[in-house]
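Side project, low priority. Logging it here so it doesn't get lost.
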Amino acid sequence: MPLEKVWAETQAFWEKRDPRQLIKATQEPKHLMALLFRYYLGLSSRWAIDGVKERQFDYQIWCGPAQAAFNHWTRDSFLAKVENRNVALVALNILEGAAQILRAGQFRSFGVPIPNEAFEYRAQRLITESDTSKEHEPSYA
């Protein structure tokens, strides 16, 4: 969209909400730019919520530190590539990892010597409904 049109829509929004923002924007170029960025940021999350297909590459998903932690966890695994991820596979890996770590913790609490590596679950190619091959079966340690 041309910058002039974005600014016109931004002005229309702020005229109704807080006209002082427009006065400040005419006096401070950085504030004008900030209002334009807010326009885009507001719409990019709305496009994601509404599922606007033609703006799919502009989607903004607010997720906080959990997404960064997930990306760190999958960094050296096959799930590092977004195209390898699907909801079922991610969910199964989280459940499998939680079960493995809980099991290791229970054994350790009973006095069984458990190495620290048992508490470091790595993503695996677990079976999903669409993947029934034997090579992807989870290993139960």
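Brief comment: The chain has five helices and no strands.
Revisit when time allows.
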